[in-house]
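Memo subject: From amino acid sequence to discrete backbone structure tokens
Keywords: amino acid chain, backbone geometry, structure tokens, three-dimensional fold.
Body of memo: The sequence and its backbone structure tokens, given next.
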Amino acid sequence: MDLTFTPEEQAFREEVRAFVREKLPASLRHKVVNSLRLTRDDHVMWQRTLHERGWGGPGWPKEHGGPGWNAVQQYIFEEECAAAGAPRLIPFGIKMVAPVIMAFGSPEQQKRFLPDISSARKWWCQGYSEPGSGSDLASLKTRAVRGLDKDGDHFIVNGQKTWTTLGQHADWIFCLVRTDPQAKAQRGISFLLIDMKSPGITVRPIITLDGAHEVNEVWFENVRVPAENLIGEENKGWTYAKFLLGHERSNIAGIGISKREIERLKRVAATEQKNGKPLLEDPLFAAKIAQIEIDLLALEMTNLRVLSDEANEKAPGPAASILKIKGTEIQQAITELLVAAVGPYALPYKAESESDEEGDIGPRYAAGLGAHYCNMRKLSIFGGSNEIQKNIISQQLLGL
């Protein structure tokens, strides 16, 4: 494929760059580029800003309310947003359940759910992982039993989901549930859309190592779900789940973010000193940065190939596993070097990462690095652990 951007694509890049420069509040950019915690309102504000411009669903076709961009335009958009310090789009609605609804949902479901996703009127979370069913997702045990009574066709859901990211904000959750316990594991699963306000749902926070409330447990106790919220066919949910996971893994690559973070790393390393010289001039440290840049360039080429396939209406497939592995390894490597660069100033992380007030210990740019480092450890685990991704590559790409 030709990786040279055309004059039209360069003009599009300038259009995106100008828009983000005008619309992104400086306070929000400051939070993003310094790894400070974002609120629900921060994310919703930026999503609605994009929606008003017609860019709420960057990967969506026009018939579903998107801009109809091709793969290269989507890539440029994400790269420019990341470079400018815009918040990463919360993927659960825009990039995960929306493509499933477009591909497998009914016209009624598309009309009902997609506009509220693009406009951020509804916040979605993901109900995949369970205790004992993370990487071995097909072993999930949350049950959904279908019934018919005077109130209509419905499912009764019982079980537990865990590691539900930002579930405390969610209006809706998309869930994998077991609807045929007698069938082979992958064949007895269905894909349900569930209103989080339904009686019987309990959300319990899980406080992570960095002191943040980002993930949750979600419990279902006799939760009644209308059958009209079933995506596609009953017991065919594994097919839709794999389709969704492909989009999740390609999204995790985070190439634009890594580019921005490498520049941040260079600025920090140019300020910190080692043996009387800028750390950036230390040959060993500089070599580590160079290796990350080489790996990132190779990943970028692979990502463009995957996006090209998506533009030709091909699902991301097992190649998305490569993006997931290398993308997360690169992001983790950058945070490791950032922490190494500031040394002990990365340790006092909690209060400093939540505010920008006086009283920081060490340079201001070190305040959020400890929490950021801890948070990035999850990248190689969620979305299917990197070990599982290597199995997928060996089986489906290499035929081993």
Summary: The beta strands are 124-127, 143-149, 152-161, 172-178, 189-195, 201-207, 213-226, 273-274, 277-278. The chain has a mean pLDDT of 89. Residues 283-311 form the longest helix (29 residues). The chain is about 45% helix and 15% strand.
